[in-house]
């Protein structure tokens, strides 16, 4: 994975489902490879596929930062959304 990050515009994000974070027994994470030109909608689809959840549901994506949650529009690119390497994302059922 280290070689992947040496390529320009490549990053890894850490998505988690809201339902999973509410469970006290949660121990684990999934790293998703992405790039700055990927759409946020496509990123959400990749995250849902990684968590093996129903792709037909209605979901919202949030960027988790120290200063709070920021909802991510699904009509922009990863770069436009301000997502950085190592960011945590939370997926919430709408």
Give a written overview of the molecule.
The chain has 94 residues and is an alpha+beta fold. It has one domain: Phosphatidylinositol 3-kinase Catalytic Subunit, Chain A, domain 1 (Ubiquitin-like (UB roll), Roll), CATH 3.10.20.90. It is 26% helix and 32% strand. The chain contains 4 helices and 5 strands. It has helices at residues 2-5, 18-21, 40-51, 78-81, and strands spanning 10-17, 32-35, 59-65, 68-72, 88-93. Strands 2-1-5-3-4 form a 5-stranded mixed beta sheet. It starts with a helix and ends with a strand. The model has no long low-confidence stretch (mean pLDDT 85).
Please name the defining characteristics of this protein.
94 residues, alpha+beta, Ubiquitin-like (UB roll)
User: Briefly, what CATH class?
Assistant: Alpha Beta
Class by alpha and beta content? alpha+beta
Low-confidence segments, ≥5 residues, pLDDT <50? none
DSSP summary, beta strand count = 5
């Amino acid at each position: 994975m280290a070689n992947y990050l040496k390529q320009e515009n490549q990053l890894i994000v850490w998505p988690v489902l809201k339902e999973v974070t509410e469970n006290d027994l949660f121990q684990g994470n999934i790293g998703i490879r992405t790039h700055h030109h990927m759409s946020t909608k496509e990123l959400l689809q990749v995250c849902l596929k990684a968590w093996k959840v129903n792709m037909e549901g209605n979901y919202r994506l949030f960027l988790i930062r120290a200063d709070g949650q920021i909802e991510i529009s699904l009509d922009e690119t990863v770069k436009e959304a301000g997502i950085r390497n190592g960011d945590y994302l939370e997926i919430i059922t709408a």
